Amino acid sequence: MGEEGNYSARSLREHGFIWETPFGTKESEIALSNQGGKWRLRITAASGVPHIHRQGATLALLPRPVRDESRVSHGKPIVLEDRYLLDIQVGLLKVEDGMATVTPAIYTGRSGTAADLDHLVNLQAPDRFARLERLWASMDALPDRVAETVDVHRQYVVGPDLIGLPAERSVRAVVDALEAEDVPWYIPGSDPLDALELLAGITTVIPDLPLPNEAPPDSPEIRRRLEVALRITKSRGKGHANFKKDVQRAYNFTCAFCGFKALNVPGFGRFGNDAAHILPWSQYDLDHVTNGLQLCRPHHWAFDNKILLLRADSGVYRVELNTNLTDGITDQATMGLLLEAVGVIPDERLPKPSERPSPEFIEKLYEGLEGY
Prior knowledge:
Oligomer: single chain
Number of helices: 12
Helix content: 25-40%
Number of strands: 15
C-alpha cells in the first residue's frame, strides 16, 4: 500500500484489514502485527483463512500463488498454480476502530524477479471483477460441470463468509473442471478466466500462447500442451479450436446419433466424442457450428464414410443406413452399433435451432450420392 492520504504502512501497525469489493465487504482476519521484531501481515485467528495474497487471488478467480521466490516457474504462462508470486496493490478506503478497509486495485503476477518484465503481468482489479460479473451472467452457456464450479466460487465471493480454504478450493475446482473440458488453448493450472469466457461465448478471441520453449523448464506437461496448440494453429488455425468448442458446447458433449456422452476424466479431459464436420474442412474450410455435429468415434467414422446418412426435413433430423454399403456386413455387433443410430434424432440431443446442422450443407454433402 505504501502511503495513501494521511496514512502510511507504519501508521497501520496493529490494525486489522477488511476487503471491500464490488460484491460486498469481507473480513480478512489479517492484521499488521509485530512478531519476532518484524512487522508483517499475519493471520489473527485459527479460522482457516489463507494468507492475504491467497485471499486476494481467490476473490479474483486466480490460481493459488506462492510466497517463496524459489518456487516460481521462471517461465510462461506467468500465472500458474503454486508457481507464481502475486503482489496486490490496494487502495485504502477508511480507517476506524482499529480496522483498515482496503480495495484491490492492481494484481501483479510474476513468474520471475520483479525486474523481469517478460515474466510479469498486471491485471486491473475493477476490470477483473467486471469480467467475473459478465461470466456469472453467462453461466447457462457453460458446460454443466464448469457452470456448477463457477457458481460455487461465485457464492463464496458474494456471500457473507470469510475467504477461507473452502473458497480457495473452489478456484481449484473451476480449474479441474476446465481442464476436463479439454480446451486446447487452456494450460492446466493457469488463469482460467480467458478460457471460461470462450466457453461461455463472451468472446471468440483465443489469446496468443507462449511458444513451447517459453514454458517453465521443469514442466513437460505444459510444454506438451503448448506444442499441441501450436500444431493446431499451424495446420488449421484458431478457427478450428473455436469450432470444436462451439460444437462441444452446443451438443453438451453428447453424440447426436446415439446419445453417448463423452467421458469426463478429471485432469485428463473429455474422451470418446468428436466435433465432426458435415462439409469436409479440407474442401470447404468451414469451421462453423452449423457445419458440425458432435459424434462418438464409431458414428463419426460411419458418418464420414457415408455409411450413416443424415437427413433434414422441415426441422426434423433423421439418420438412415446406406444399405448400398452395408449389405455385405455380417458381424452382428457392427450392425448393431450402426442400427442404434438409425431413426429420428431426439430433439434433446440437438442444439438450439440457430446452431443445428444446416440443411443446405447436408444437401451439398450428398450431391450425386446414389439413392439419397
